[in-house]
Records
---
Amino acid sequence: MLDLDALRQRYLQVTGSEPEGLWFAPGRVNLIGEHTDYNDGFVLPFALERKAGIAAGRRDDDDLVLVSLELDDEVRLSLDALAPGQEGWSAYLAGVAWALREAGHQIGGANLVMSSDVPLGAGLSSSAAIECATVSALMGLYDLEIPPMDRAKLAQVAENAYVGAPTGLLDQAASTLCEAEAGLFLDCRSLETRQVPLPLAEQGLEILVLDTKTPHSHVDGEYGDRRRSCEEAAAILGVPALRDVTDLDAALAQLPDETMRRRVRHVVTENERVLEALEVAKAGELRSLAPLLDASHESMRDDYEITVPTVDLAVAQARRSGALGARMTGGGFGGCIIALIPAGEGDRIGQEIAAAFAEAGHGAPEWFSVLPAAGAGRLA
């Protein structure tokens, strides 16, 4: 849980005054739909109760004073000097200010003191939470009226163009648009959204999120390689994006190598799984999500090749320990798994996964159980 008193106190320490407000944006779990977003496909995330919070206030000059509570670090930048390519944690906040100004929104200097309880590098969109909280804070300080999807797009611009991570819109849309007790169905081409009720508690269910503590980064080469491979395959197939492939077998026969065929098979079948999950959720039969989660993980492991041994062990042990279904969530190469479990079983299953990790010589994981939470807003 965020310590709001500590956030206010640090702001007071840095500036000598109380913040004008506190804003937040949550991390997210992607229930299903991995690496479909940049292929114009479908995703079904939901927001976490874990969030990034920002205590904010205006300045009389054109500087940004950025402070991280957890890192005990302070960075000062001039708005006019902001430029893509900045490194470090402060780039995620500065990039939002840059994106707002590039889009023609009038903002001045600001003091932004940040805290977050979204695990870093775990595939829960800690960066999107920071970006979307910054969007909310700067909107609030400077009375900007920006529709929710446009806020998500601005946060994505910050991540893509300023930080340099080639992610799709899924993370920022989820952090901004999600509602409590619902998933967000997002068509990544049309940007049509639909709130999908996920009454897990009513059905005696919850989602276990387990961080394998195997860090990953979207800025590294593997994520970009997968994206380029999909774009090349779409060009070969003569379609705008892999979302437009309707005959998978015929498409695979046209591709030049087995690696590309595996990549395409994952994206096409994952889109199908998202659409099936949507129908399952609409029917209210949430236990029927389980086989879709299992199939998604197998596809990410075997076709998209984005899992790692710790992730695969966690998924396998979760199933052995009584999870109904489990999969890796996030961009891959580390991070978290999710498991659909009976309510109240999270700690036991987490402990059994931890024991399997210890036996295999891996470091200890961390875990917590979740229900879908609300998207970005004002805390105080």
---
Amino acid sequence: MKQLTTLSMAISLALMSSTALAATAKVEFKNPDDYRDIEAVNERQSSFQAQLFEGLTKHFESLAAQLPEGNTLSITVTDLDITGRVEPTYGQGGAAYMRIVDRIDYPRIEFSYQYTDSSGAVLSEESVNLRDMGAHQTMRAAKESGRDELYYEKKLLDRWFNDTFERNN
């Protein structure tokens, strides 16, 4: 029983210390009505948009968690074009829609960021315009993307984050 208690305490401390060593992320989606393509497919636009923004916010938070404790990564998304395009399909029940992903419909994300330390001093800031011009079209990527609606957008953000913050840390 004592070993179980010790193990539980060790796990709890490890979990607390891993969250304490993380920067925070602040994410704002500015003027989403002007974004290039965040069109819902066969669901309410407001629900789709909320899920989309929540998924991207969580991803920015997971990226920021890799940065030093006390620092803040503030993101302001100014334009978004998610992977694919919405096209009608016709079947027994009439017209429906689906998002088609091919080589010409790549994700685009435009945002600005400011990265500050615990005292509020700006460590870096920049406007960013990311695009993945079709390099994602492999069978493996297609299989992986089926598990995550934001697969391609997250890969794009991962590359940006690694390229940007490798040189800062």
